[in-house]
Design goal:
By secondary structure, the chain is an alpha/beta fold. The protein has seven helices and 35 strands. The longest helix is centred in the last third of the chain and has 18 residues.
């Protein structure tokens, strides 16, 4: 633990939830966690309540058992959070930054009776300087409204949990924390790499700076004044799933110091023989993946501890998977750090907004209608701008993570508009990664891959001029009643009553319908899904993570055959 770690005083240190440093790629010895117990009040009034009669555990969403509240916001209702805190004199420097890593859906932040920040949208972090508002003892109030306004990105959240739609969450669901630094500081970094070179860009007002890169063969030390530097790494070790090697480094000046890391990893496309392949570190690679919704039975959007993310990642690896498709949700930064550290590739979805149209976006494609030119052209300008801004914000947030190799723009037509233009806009933000413009159907001419979802019929992969990704398939159901969220309702794509038959069916699906198409250009497959989620019981593991449904030996044999 850093010696300047200053925890919230509302709980003992070992009881502060998710107390790990929230941003491992820009870490300072300046950290004050506000996670833990907050006072809370519900009200339909615009005015801040005079009394707070309940408590909540932050950062668990109020709908979750872990929050201690376990209730939803009604339409037009506000939740008011209140936290009292003091900062030690040694902690206070020129600039004091208050971070909210995720608050859903519309938030106003008050410090000592002054409105200091407003934010709309629940998935991306926001921050505000608070040094001018501080007193000896401070009262922080966060006012949140969440009517599930669909012009904002909302993903799989629904007012009523049913089928593939899950319990909505409201309020603070990621860490709240404070850091302090001098006027001259490192605001941010951007790492671009080749297989032997780090190209580092720094957002800073600091002139003289030094980087120390720690390697197995000794430290690389460079002093420089520009805000960009290129450093060739002798005897480079590349990052991959079997050896997720991270180069740790410190960026140092007289006024600031941050710790971070990078990895030497490339992702490219190249024609090999008569098909196009995706290459990891210049070698053809098969992405054997799982759809990962990121839901937990006790915390909904937020795991009880980051260890739960780690357990999911390690289980997937143990079963032979090398990829998680993070489905329509942006996790805390720590999740991606664990994927970097443990060697798990990530296909990251952007989070959808706009209304979902069942007939057009599910029923017709299921019947074979998968081409609708100019679909979404009548989408409102405000909705387009919100989606594009969040997509760009997601790219900015995850840019330095080596595990993230692939972005899904539109999933199954949901919220889809101006597909070719959006592809061009986002590809400019990050040319180094793969972009799947239209995952499933309503194909766009501009996309790095051909992306198919196949559930209710036999898998048949047709030749394509692009790498082919089976971006969703399977969804086979075996329901363990003792570990199910809803004992009466079951949702999935093929239901088995017998566990052994379920395991045989899953094995046959891979062996007979996936493996044969690798030679024809199939570069990856994403099985639905890692875990059960509420009514949806097509996970390899139950929603409470207590029962593994699949046979490990079978899964490892499948994995051994999924390669190029």
């Amino acid at each position: 633990m850093n010696k300047n770690f200053l925890p919230s005083d509302s709980l003992p240190l070992d009881e502060i939830p998710l107390r790990e440093y929230p941003r491992p790629q820009l870490q300072r010895d300046s950290y004050f966690s506000l996670n833990g117990k907050w006072d809370v009040e519900f009200s339909f009034k615009e005015e801040i309540p005079s009394a707070f009669t309940s408590q909540v555990i932050v950062p668990y969403p109020i709908e979750s058992p872990l929050s201690g509240i376990q209730r939803s916001l009604k339409k037009g209702e506000y939740i008011y959070y209140k936290k009292e805190f003091s900062l030690e004199k040694e902690f206070i420097k020129d600039i004091i930054l208050l971070h909210f890593d995720g608050v859903d859906q519309e938030a106003q932040v008050y410090l000592n009776n002054k409105l200091i920040k407003e934010n709309k949208g629940g998935y991306l972090p926001f921050e505000v300087e608070i040094q001018d508002y501080l007193e000896n003892t401070n009262i922080l109030i966060v006012k949140v409204k969440d009517d599930l306004d669909k012009k904002y990105c909302y993903g799989k959240q629904s007012k009523k949990s049913k089928g593939m739609w899950y319990t909505k969450i409201s309020g603070i669901w990621k860490s709240v924390w404070i850091e302090s630094f001098n006027k001259e500081y490192f605001k941010g970094i951007k790492t671009d790499v080749t297989l032997d070179t780090l190209n580092l860009s720094i957002d800073t007002n600091i002139k003289k700076k030094k980087i120390i890169i720690y390697t197995n063969e000794g430290n690389i030390v460079k002093e420089f004044t520009k805000n960009q530097i290129s450093i060739k790494i002798p005897h480079p070790i590349c990052w991959d799933i079997d050896n997720p090697y991270l180069y740790h480094f410190d960026l140092i000046s007289e006024s600031d110091k941050i710790s971070s890391y990078f990895a030497l990893r490339t992702i490219t496309i190249k024609k090999i023989g008569n098909v196009n392949r995706i290459l990891l570190n210049d070698k053809p690679f098969f992405f054997h993946g799982l759809l990962d919704q990121g839901y937990f039975s006790d915390g909904i959007f937020t795991p009880k501890a980051y260890k739960k993310y780690e357990e999911d990642i390690l289980l997937a690896k143990e079963l032979g998977f090398n990829t998680l498709r993070k489905h329509i949700k942006i996790e805390p930064d720590y999740f991606y750090y664990l994927c970097d550290k443990l060697g798990m590739l990530v296909f990251q979805d952007f989070v959808n907004n706009n209304k979902y149209h069942f007939i057009i976006e599910t029923a017709l494609p299921t019947l074979g209608v998968t081409k609708l030119p100019n679909y979404g052209k009548h989408t409102k300008k405000e909705i387009k701008e919100i989606f594009l801004n969040q997509a760009k914000g997601t790219i900015f947030l995850l840019y330095n993570h080596p595990s993230v190799v692939y972005y899904t723009i539109f999933n199954e037509g949901w919220g889809q508009f101006d597909s070719n233009q959006i592809y061009q806009d986002l590809k400019k933000e990050d040319p180094s990664r793969i972009f799947d413009t239209t995952s499933g159907w309503f194909e766009s001419s501009l996309s790095d891959v051909t992306s198919k979802h196949i559930y209710f019929k036999k898998i048949n992969i047709k030749p394509s001029s692009k790498p082919i990704i089976l971006s969703e398939f399977g969804g086979y159901v075996y329901k363990d009643l003792e570990h199910s969220f809803n004992k009466k309702k079951t949702y999935g794509y093929k239901i088995y009553k017998d566990l052994e038959q379920y395991q045989k069916g899953l094995y046959s699906l891979y062996i007979n319908q996936v493996v044969p198409f690798i030679k024809d250009g199939l570069c990856g497959c994403i099985y639905t899904q890692l875990s059960d989620v509420e009514d949806e019981t097509n996970g390899l593991i139950t929603y409470d993570r207590k029962v593994l449904k699949v046979n490990k030996k079978d899964m490892k044999e499948i994995s051994s055959l999924l390669h190029i």
